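Replying to the earlier thread about multi-chain prediction with a worked example.

Input:
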Amino acid sequence: MQGIQSWGDTLRLLVELSATAAFALSGLMEAARKKLDIVGICVVAFLAAFGGGTLRDLLLDQRPFFWVQHVEVLWGVLGLCALAVLFLRHRHFELTEKAIQWPDALGLGLFTATGVHHALGALMPAVVAVLMGLVTGVFGGVLRDMVCNEIPTAFRDHQPYAVCAFAGGWVYVGLWQADAPGWVALVACVVVTAGLRGLALWRNWALPAWRA
Amino acid sequence: MQGIQSWGDTLRLLVELSATAAFALSGLMEAARKKLDIVGICVVAFLAAFGGGTLRDLLLDQRPFFWVQHVEVLWGVLGLCALAVLFLRHRHFELTEKAIQWPDALGLGLFTATGVHHALGALMPAVVAVLMGLVTGVFGGVLRDMVCNEIPTAFRDHQPYAVCAFAGGWVYVGLWQADAPGWVALVACVVVTAGLRGLALWRNWALPAWRA
Amino acid sequence: MQGIQSWGDTLRLLVELSATAAFALSGLMEAARKKLDIVGICVVAFLAAFGGGTLRDLLLDQRPFFWVQHVEVLWGVLGLCALAVLFLRHRHFELTEKAIQWPDALGLGLFTATGVHHALGALMPAVVAVLMGLVTGVFGGVLRDMVCNEIPTAFRDHQPYAVCAFAGGWVYVGLWQADAPGWVALVACVVVTAGLRGLALWRNWALPAWRA
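Result:
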């Protein structure tokens, strides 16, 4: 039993780290495309990786932030940026983007679940908890794009991204209200969110467009 | 007396709801012009309607936010966005913009008064209270424009907008310091702010330009 | 001794005021270049001068803000904006930019030291304290550029700016951990940050560029 527990913890840690790295890489590549310098690259990677959770904690008035409690993630992002500047080239970008789609989908699910979990713990109403899940999962990318002077991709590419997190968030809230164990709600939220996102990527789903 | 009181409450609720709807609609139309998808439309409408008050509460460190205490407004904005996507067309935009100018002017006054009121309640100095009124009334639009990758209209169109809220804010503070009843300060602030804004719209007032 | 103390205080106040004015002027000129109106000019000047410290206090959850405790600085920035609109012309800009480089470098050092100091006082880990120093010194300019719809200069001009603050911040933390007196850490941080910035300006240092 002990073994399964610690195996689960290790798995979760691995998923979390690869998801955070995927988010940071997305920031890093956008910064590179905009020809930012090393300072800009680090800031945008940091915003993409931790901006969503930080904004959620600001809104919920919770401290310490994740990256204050675990300062090693700051060094991790810095190291990732240093490695990227040394080894990543523009011709690798398309490949990298493909490669991070899956950890990114997992990360979206995991970050959403974390956000809903924190908000429910702060006694927020259901719809606000789902919103906080969305903020955690999606607003890192939004801040990344705003700093890079772009309209956020999540708001204009007509691909289901926030919508998947929205669905997953409600799954979490529903299971929580049905008194399901925490890990069931967590796993269900990640599976639904990442699953929908994966399906959307695979089947090329598009959100209905605004008619002129 | 009871009747007048409840009549006043109903009136205030009506003004508040139509003002919030006007702010949300302004966000919605800007999002549509930028061809955002449904996620972007909802976020920008939400930011335009509640961004100013939320930023004020963040700065004053006050919780819960308005939209946490009244989650039905979240559903209201979502519903408005859904209706707009179904029924609003680009050719209706000019008409809608004309139609929302007046509830928007009322909203500017009301939001400013609310901001000043909250800041005075948090024991802020007079000039900071006026500033918080400005933030509440104006920064929803500022955040809306920043997300849409525009320089905020309020900062560049040379039309008196924030300036009206600035004047109205001082009226509130002055009456409050003269120990006038709360509703007098509120009504005077709304009348001055919305009145000046209305005059500015009607007479086409412009702020003095920066000389080259 | 008393005399030296008060002489030091006066000097520090002078440095602080000229640094704040330099930051505000940088905002003012960017606003003028973007042809913002008087409202935009005041907001951008305010953001450039106080945005970094305000963001730091939001992240550290500290109140009151500097400009709430010292409301006279609000009037100062307003007065500076009024004077600038009356007397500054576009042809003066290049000269003004040269003239503010040195108080700006001093300000970068001083703001960084203040940020590190606040963060250490709030019991933050060393790397977070340095980060808060960076936020205080650099993010006023970042917010200024974001409102003006530009990619922040600090992230793309390949000039050492945040990097100088990063070095200075570590000097502060190192001396503080070695139990040096507070004023030694402060002065050393300012000297290292402003000195490196001055050297970078003088020798035209550039950050290594991202290779394609």
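Chain C touches chain A at residues 58-59, 61, 124-125, 127-128, 131, 142, 146, 149-152, 154-158, 161-163, 207-212 (CB under 8 Å).

Feel free to reuse this layout for your own posts.
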